[in-house]
TrEMBL record:
Protein name stated in the entry: Solute carrier family 2, facilitated glucose transporter member 5
A Gene Ontology BP annotation from the UniProt entry: fructose import across plasma membrane
Domain of life: Eukaryota
Recorded GO CC terms: sarcolemma
Source lineage: Eukaryota, Metazoa, Chordata, Craniata, Vertebrata
Leader sequence residues: none
Occurrences of domain Major facilitator superfamily (MFS) profile (ranges): 23-492
SUPFAM superfamilies in UniProt: MFS general substrate transporter
Gene3D superfamilies for the chain: MFS general substrate transporter like domains
Similarity comment: family membership: Belongs to the major facilitator superfamily. Sugar transporter (TC 2.A.1.1) family. Glucose transporter subfamily.
Subcellular location: Cell membrane, Sarcolemma; Cell membrane
Keywords: Cell membrane, Membrane, Sugar transport, Transmembrane, Transmembrane helix, Transport
Amino acid sequence: MLRVVLRCETELPLQNKILILTICAAGIGGTFQYGYNISIINAPASYIQVFMNTTWLERMGVPLESNMVLLLWSFTVSAYPLGGLTGAVAAGPMAIMLGRKMSLLLNNGFVIIAAALSGCSRMAKSFEMIMLSRFFTGVNAGVSMNIQPMYLAESAPKKLRGAVALTSASFTALGLVLGQVVGLRELLGGEESWPFLLASNVVPALIQLTALPWFPESPRYLLIDRGDKESCSLVLAALQKLRGTSDLSAELEEMLAEQAAVKGQRAKNPWELFQNPGLRWQLVSIVVLSSAMQLCGNDSMYFYAAYVFQEAGIPEDKIPYVVIGTGSCELITSVTCVRLSTQISWMPYLSMACIFAYILSFGIGPAGVTGVLPTEVFDQMSRPAAYMICGSLLWFNLFLVGTAFPFIVVMSPTLQRENPSWKSRRSSGKGTSKLRPVEVSIKALRRSKPPHCSRRKEDAIWGNSAVNSAVALCPCRDTKREVRDNILLLGS
């Protein structure tokens, strides 16, 4: 068996190996970061909310109300798509002026800044640093989501162009899964290690900074966008490195024909695409697809996966491992498009299976196609602007859904007040325990009480505000009375 594998590896053409390594070098610091940074924020959610509350108490002497904690957490999560929107707008000019490869390399600077901010946030006692860190992380993801598919599609031979561009979705799914695994409490998802979890995104950035410079720039960018004599020699060198000793005449003729067709033209702006009737249907396609991809709520579910599975009734100690299943589903579909067929009889696990099946269907369709479509339907001069439009819509809709999602989760149990089975499950103590994060909040608030706080002021603080701040970590309003009773027991 080993002999067969070794023989197949030796028979693999050198240029295919270089193309595969180019894909890996671009992907590890590109769309991998998008998926990784979506998933790592879910595991330490309760710890970060406690950190926000205790930090505010140390500053002001009064803990935050429950709605304010939820609002601050929503801002923290939504800073990521806001940064992504900024990065998507900047990606077009960067790709034109700096080139595809250089843009990807410089883009890692945003992640390094973000890692420094999040890693030092607890030491500096500043939750604002976490918000700013998430913004810079989003800028990195917004740039890479647009430029990486362009770079890979333009570097691949024509017959492999679509398949190579589709690997961007595979790296996104791989980042989701790895972020969920690293976020386990046994690794970096614990109460003491969550700053290191948020700063761990610097590792893929350093890997790309080390690996990507060894690989060539996009040949199509060098010939068509730059087009000078120096670029022509670079094109031949890049093609020779990517294709090996194969015949390059056909591919060069195609590139020269496209260069002649766009000669004298400059790269288009996004608004110029809307003014061109010949590109109307291509624009409609990417607008609808990129908007629908985020409005369906799939990526927002990764932000708040723990809340979703709590409300579905999954035991709390199993939720981190169930969350890994969501990312694994997208990884499987992005690579093999396998259909989930498992049926589970218990209702909470049936709900979990339905979520998995939804992610499987999402991975088969929009997750992979959205990033590839602009490469296929726009020419070289229109492609950067098309990616700016596609990426801006994608990130804007992710911001809308990501901001609204936690409030939807908080409000949704009010629709189930009249459901007897749901109430009996709550009253019998089955399903998820809502007291654990409350206990964590109460103990943390007591530990962080300012030393100058008088007894009268302490009693006033613990009269109403502490109850509300503790309830902030429990997304269910129907259990507020039960939570208040438990707080009184804890305080007695």
